[in-house]
Amino acid sequence: MITFGRLLLRQWRNRPGRALATAASVAVAVGAVVATWVAADASRAGYRRLTETVEGVPSIDVLARGGGRFDVEKLPALADVSGVRAVVPLFYRPTILRIGSKRVREIAVGVDAETLVSLGLLTLTSGRPCLGPDEVVLDTALAASLGMRLGDDVLFFARRRVSRLEIVGLAESKSMRWFAEGAGVIVDIAALADMSLALGFIDRARVVLEPQASRPHALEEIGRRLPAELLAEIPAGRSSMAEDVLHSANLGLDFVTGLTMAMAWFIVGNAMLMNVTERRRGFSLLRLLGATGRQVRIFVTSEAAILGAVGAVVGAAVGLVAAGPIAAGISQTLQAPDAALVVHPLIVPLALILGTAIAVAAAWWPAQEATAVDPLEGLSQAPPPPRGVPLRFVTLAVGLWIVAASIMALVLTERLPPQAAVPAGIMMLLAFVATTPVMLPPLARALAAFIPHRWRIEGTLAVEHILRQPVRTALTTGVLVVAVSNGIGLGHAIRDNVDNVRGWYGRMMRADWLLTHAGMISAAAAGEGPKTKTAEEEVRSLPGLQSVEGIGVATGRVAGQACVVVARDISADKPLPLEPVEAPEADVRQALARGEAVAGTVLARRTGIKPGDVVAVEVFGRSTKVRIAALVVDYTSGGSSIHLDRATARRLFGIAAADILLVTAEPGRAAALREPLAAIADTHAMLLRSFGDVRAFIDSIVNGVVGSLWAILGLGFVVGSLGVANTVTMHVLEKKRVLGLLRVVGMTSGQVTRMVVLESLILGLSGSLIGLLGGVTTALFIQLASQPLLGHPTSLSFHPGIVAANLAAALAVTTLAAWLPARRAARLDLLEAVSSE
Amino acid sequence: MSILRTEHLEKKFGAGNQGGAGVVAVCGIDLTIGGGEFVAITGASGSGKSTLLHMLGGITRPTAGRVLLEGVDLASLDDDALALVRRRRIGFVFQRYNLLPELSLVENVSLPLVLDGMSDARADEAALAALETVGMEHRARHRPDELSGGEQQRGAIARALVAKPAIVLADEPTGALDSVNSRRVVELLERLVAERGQTVILVTHDAGVAAAAIRTIRIQDGRIESDTHGVPHGLHTPTGGGA
């Protein structure tokens, strides 16, 4: 209908501010969603890059469900699974090498070396891949430590025979890390299996994935193809910490993205509601002249669609522009330069559809309201009467609480995956917003009591304005409630996580110096044992030492679950480096000395292991029973770990070597040890770091992830501010007539400014206080949701700094947001204001 | 022939669902209005005359009783059906003109037709004809804020007439006009009745305006106090409204 279109155009021309503010609200909302989406993608890409740096090559293992070797014939074709780059059968064999008079315990790994080299999965520093039964490739560092060169022979002790093998190639240590599991010797797989009387059998098949492949999807597809006796799993020990960080951070990103969506909804919903409320009189006239409800509804929703589309176009552009620096900042923080601006091709079209759809959906309720406008209202010169809190809001809040609590209970009892906690958390926050209309009146009145007496009139009017439209006010405060809840809840969760990880490293790595293998500090890293064994002897012979603690790590399996086995020296004169759950430290120490083990809480949760259980632990094909004395809070391999005293590990599993050496100097002699330790590190191709270096390295990883989350949280706050500013502006536009009348009857411009600012401040404070409640609940929610992931109860600590920062930011935002509209209100043309319809 | 009939019409405000006392604005009114009648409803402020008019126009539903417009019981219609009746069979004129400020006069006048699905061109044509009837065709393209109060009210009358309604209901149409403009408006209404046989019901508290009507119904405390028929003495000295 042309006249309706004309009416719409004329209304926009008459009140451009209202139409612009409505479109701006959609732009803010869409911009927020686009920026958050792009920033979250940049974070994910950064995390992936971080994971790859730590992990090397992303892969999935296929192994026998009951443990031990399996017939390679049982392995189905997997090369055609989406994202699979190669399938690498692996055969491990503990062996003894004899070089001259020296005997060295080693782990040999059987592979098709030629294929690995051709695929770029194994890099040789010299020579060629081993091809036949009489050839061997050695880790370059191992060869150097043994003084071996290309063309030399070694005696290789296997079950069938003792073979003389020629060293035909030397492999780069780093390129072996992803498949060798600590082994330093590479032999042709058929030859090694034959020497071990196990021809045709393998220990596992490592499925190498393309860098961009989705590991969960590949895992699912591979699992579907395997026969019952085989299973697929993500290899433990090599990537788990990064994987876990990625997993938790992804949950965080999902949560923040969801909340941004919720905020976008509030902002647009509020704008649409105000846009309609302001024109109630016009709609009532239309109804009076015979417009049907449907016609009014179409009018309102068409307008919403047009403004929504315009806002979405602007918002998508602004969001992309804003996301650039945010993504670049995140990439820099994560030290992953490749991860800068990743724009998913669907972002822009989806943003446009989403913006329009949200605008239309958000206008639906106001359109219903407009339809229900009493025709008499248009005839009345009085403003519509104040409206109560609709019962449906309370019902909605209660409903959301019940659903959120139910989902949470299912997550806690592990009937639902931890990811389900994300929508539950969002629902819970929405429930808080839905209860706002109920909580707001007493809160606003209580806050108004603190307004100085000389501003009594302004305060009284401000409260009256707030309470006149409780639903709309609730939507305005809803934006703040979400922003503050988000900031406080996630802020606490982030702080607690960081504190936990740092505390754990502090316990695990308490020493002056650390000697590790190149590239990284992670107890999950497989080490090249025999080399460090020599290094350990050399370190122990240095003067000025208080203690040397060795940590050896091997991958293993417990109750069908991949895990890492950590063997470490437990010094009697140092605090226990583990954090037992509900068990006295002294008892755990004694149990470890007796030859018992402790299990990480995550492993215990996954396998059902309890303290007192005797479990079979399989390392390098050897299965040994061990008693679990207690559970410990641990982040090694994401908590999927078994810890033993080093002597026990040597006896039960042959883990003799230390992958990490923690060196503590006598008081005042730490600096003097740097030089001799550096010399040992050089000799054994190891990395020497001070405790401060390690802390800095861990901090850089943790800070990167945390920084990206903070950046996106900050973005949420900026969006919240824009939303509040927009809402306050619209609010002032809507009240033009009332403000004009107040000025006519003698209110000064200063009083009008104060009244608008006070109104905004009361809204801000109320929203912040409700947000504080929501934030504490969110923090508790996240803490509860993380329990199934961690397997142990976590404590919720209160960080007043985070609360204060959020509240201060919210108040600053609301005051600033109100200032310009307030000044504008104070300068209203009185004649125009009082004559405005 | 009767166009409009009420039976035991009653309206209570504030009675609530529990059947509390509330305020009785209109009580047991039985009324029959014939085609081509010019009826003035008068009474003091708060007597219930406007409430009666709102019920006659299907703006407010009665608490009890019936309003039959051309034999159709308005109370039996749902909101949208009532909207259709208002759009096609009733023309409204209000004290405050109530033109949409965003639209030109001709667009305002054509609105009921456009709402009824008529093409813009045809609606415009009809609107211009209605404006001609009230002598406002020369101001057709102006917006309400460019017109005087009297001009706006004549425009509002044109809007009330454009759909050729069975009845025109005018609620204090001169209440916001000066005496000259009041006179013009009432003359216009008189002419509509006389020349086109249009049924007009006018609510006013102005005895001068009421004198223009053929029939005068006086309401007191929600009841008909008197219902007098007579020859109108013409519009001689309406006292006019305020602004």
How would you sum up this structure in a few lines?
The complex is a heterodimer of chains A (837) and B (243). Chain A is α+β, with helices and mostly antiparallel strands and 837 residues long. Chain B has a 6-stranded mixed sheet, sandwiched between helices. Chain B has a 4-stranded antiparallel sheet with strand order 2-1-4-5, with helices on one face.
Write the layout of secondary structure elements.
The complex is a heterodimer of chains A (837) and B (243).
Chain A: H1 2-14, H2 16-55, E1 59-64, E2 70-71, E3 84-99, E4 102-111, H3 113-118, E5 124-127, E6 135-139, H4 140-146, E7 153-157, E8 162-171, H5 173-180, E9 185-188, H6 189-195, E10 201-202, E11 204-209, H7 215-225, E12 230-233, H8 240-277, H9 280-288, H10 293-333, H11 347-371, H12 375-379, H13 391-412, H14 421-448, H15 456-468, H16 470-508, E13 513-517, H17 529-540, E14 545-558, E15 561-568, E16 579-580, H18 585-593, E17 597-600, H19 601-607, E18 614-619, E19 622-633, E20 641-645, H20 646-653, E21 660-665, H21 674-683, E22 686-690, H22 691-734, H23 736-744, H24 749-790, H25 800-826, H26 830-835
Parallel strand pairs in A: 4-9, 6-8, 15-20, 17-19
Antiparallel strand pairs in A: 1-11, 1-12, 2-10, 3-4, 3-7, 3-11, 5-8, 6-9, 7-8, 13-21, 13-22, 14-15, 14-18, 14-21, 16-19, 17-20, 18-19
Helix pairs in contact in A: 1-2, 2-8, 2-10, 2-11, 2-22, 8-11, 8-14, 8-16, 8-22, 10-11, 10-22, 13-14, 14-15, 14-16, 14-24, 15-24, 16-22, 16-24, 16-25, 22-25, 24-25
Chain B: E1 2-13, E2 23-34, E3 38-42, H1 49-56, E4 64-69, E5 72-73, H2 79-89, E6 90-94, H3 105-115, H4 120-133, H5 149-161, E7 167-171, H6 179-196, E8 199-203, H7 207-210, E9 215-220, E10 223-229
Parallel strand pairs in B: 3-8, 3-9, 6-7, 7-8
Antiparallel strand pairs in B: 1-2, 1-4, 4-5, 9-10
